[in-house]
């Protein structure tokens, strides 16, 4: 049996530590934790949930969760994962088996060989592993990787704070305006020790639906450059070479450091603080989004959003006339129609993947903490 920390159990469940010490031994707290958190977060198991699921290549954490749980984002609560566990998640690999312990209403993970037999049920204790480069390459992903990979490695949206401090191309040899592969580019701005950069072109401004302020810009990825010679004490102009180009680079294009290879095994979870955001844009310049499409929201790192945050999607209820009460105007309740999974976070804006919707997502819709 996986032994969860008694203290962590009650912290995650939102119960006082005094209750933990007074009423539960460590073994009991393991069960109490999962049940208390599940009850608080409405993490109900499906009535027709299977007894077990063998993890196969191509599975996703969200998909497996949806086989057992009414709300797939409840996975961390059912496992009893605390905030640190979510940041450094347990890896789950093809060949392992997820068991549904119906008596205690929780899930267990085992190897196919039956490692760690307890009471006739094959289990294995999982320990948090550090998220370091290259670790867990074969682990299953949280959500479909193909839908989000381009957005993890290329700057498709840039928040205002980042744009203001990015270096920029100021000139090209022989007064040319456009640049291609292997050509020189002259850049001004703080490189912050970087030598390899992506080049992007700021595009359509993204406005906060609530304040009307510009909080970011759509960014077209145009290529990569590497540093040849840093500016010296006689000047602040750096010399770069174009490594590759998706399209011709131009004077005025901006630079961002090439990010490390992303790790996609972050865990779906509700936000730690209450969040109420709005849909800012749908990627591709369209007005509506469907399943597995990309949207941005007007909340980011500064608001407590982190990787794996799941928000419910709701549409404002219409204002209509109550014909039974003298045509008095009344507002209908907001309607929930799906979820959005946050997979890339900036200071004031974030990318999300649309999950399990029963209607189209529209700009201005609500994205808030699941209820």
From TrEMBL:
Signal peptide positions on this chain: 1-24
InterPro entries: Bact_Kbp, LysM, LysM_dom_sf
Record keywords: Signal
Superkingdom of the organism of origin: Bacteria
Gene3D superfamilies per the UniProt record, alphabetical: LysM domain
Domain LysM: 51-100
PROSITE patterns per UniProt: LYSM (PS51782)
Name under which the protein is recorded: LysM peptidoglycan-binding domain-containing protein
Native species: Undibacterium rugosum
Taxonomic classification: Bacteria, Pseudomonadati, Pseudomonadota, Betaproteobacteria, Burkholderiales
């Amino acid at each position: 049996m996986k032994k969860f920390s008694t203290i962590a159990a009650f912290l995650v469940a939102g119960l006082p530590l005094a209750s933990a010490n007074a009423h539960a031994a460590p073994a009991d707290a393991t069960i109490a934790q999962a049940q208390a958190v599940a009850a608080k977060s409405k993490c109900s198991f499906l009535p027709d949930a299977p007894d077990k699921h063998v993890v196969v290549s191509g599975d996703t954490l969200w998909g497996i969760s949806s086989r057992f749980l009414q709300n797939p984002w409840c996975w961390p609560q059912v496992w009893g994962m605390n905030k640190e566990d979510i940041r450094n998640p347990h890896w789950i690999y093809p060949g392992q088996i997820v068991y549904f312990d119906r008596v205690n209403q929780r899930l267990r993970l085992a190897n196919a060989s039956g490692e760690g037999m307890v009471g006739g049920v094959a289990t294995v204790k999982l320990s948090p592993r550090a998220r370091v480069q290259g670790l867990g390459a074969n682990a299953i992903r949280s959500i479909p990787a193909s839908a989000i990979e381009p957005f993890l490695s290329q700057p498709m949206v840039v928040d205002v704070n980042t744009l203001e401090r990015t270096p920029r191309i100021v000139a090209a040899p022989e007064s040319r305006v456009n640049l291609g592969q292997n050509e020189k580019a002259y850049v001004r701005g703080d490189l912050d020790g970087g030598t390899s950069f992506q080049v992007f072109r700021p595009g359509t401004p993204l406005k906060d639906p609530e304040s009307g302020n510009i909080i970011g810009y759509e960014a077209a990825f145009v290529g990569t450059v590497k540093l040849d010679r840093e500016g010296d004490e006689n000047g602040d102009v750096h010399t770069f070479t174009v490594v590759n180009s998706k399209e011709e680079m131009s004077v005025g294009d901006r630079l961002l450091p090439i990010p490390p290879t992303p790790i996609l095994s972050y865990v779906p979870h509700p936000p730690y603080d209450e969040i109420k955001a709005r849909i800012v844009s749908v990627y591709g310049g369209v007005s509506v989004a469907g399943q597995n499409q990309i949207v941005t929201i007007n909340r980011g790192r500064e608001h407590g959003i982190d990787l794996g945050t799941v928000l419910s999607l709701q549409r404002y209820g219409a204002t209509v006339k109550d014909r039974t009460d003298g045509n008095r105007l009344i507002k209908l309740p907001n309607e929930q129609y799906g979820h959005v999974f946050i997979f890339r976070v900036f200071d004031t804006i974030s990318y999300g993947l649309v999950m399990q919707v029963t209607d189209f997502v529209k700009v201005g819709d609500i994205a808030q903490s699941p209820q």
